Amino acid sequence: MSELRKANYDGIFFITLTVVSWVDVFTRSNYCEEIIRNIKFCQQHKGLELYAYVIMSNHMHWIAGQRDGKLNLLLRDFKSYSAKQLLSMIYNSPYESRRDWMKIVFQYNAKYQKQNAENMFWQKTNHPVDCYSPKVMMQKINYVHENPVRAGLVKNAGDWWYSSANERSPIEVLPF
């Protein structure tokens, strides 16, 4: 991937992490809770500085930085670990009615990727956008928070549980 499309310097970025083929994985709360555990771990142990987030059914947005300017490495590790955890949960759950179909999709997407021997959970790119000014930062935060509203899932951004717009959000974010 081009160095221009990586979050590999000190800054705050708008990041999108998307499940391959836009598979609606995060319609199940146990998968969302696993992502939340992973995000919290990165906050506590990997220097993740999270300013806003939303978890949608097949993707998530973050406004984030990393205290050492290595957000790209944090994202690599986050995606690798969370993919392994989520794939294990999906493949080993007797209650996952979409398991066989999802397995086909994840294996198909890995087929042509060098890094993914058997399964590919996340799309390769994160589409980082530098939030180089307060105006850009606020525009991206509003975009993140309004995502569930634009999707028709809630009327008010603060009603979406898996979002920093919700005052009772399960993840703490830094003030901007």
UniProtKB/TrEMBL annotation:
Domain called Transposase IS200-like: residue spans: 8-147
UniProt cross-references to SMART domains, sorted A to Z: Y1_Tnp (SM01321)
InterPro entries in UniProt: RAYT_transposase, Transposase_17, Transposase_17_sf
Domain of life: Bacteria
Gene3D superfamilies found in the cross-reference section: Transposase IS200-like (3.30.70.1290)
UniProt xrefs under PANTHER family: REP-ASSOCIATED TYROSINE TRANSPOSASE
NCBIfam families: REP_Tyr_transpos
Protein's name according to its UniProt entry: Transposase
Annotated source species: Sediminibacterium roseum
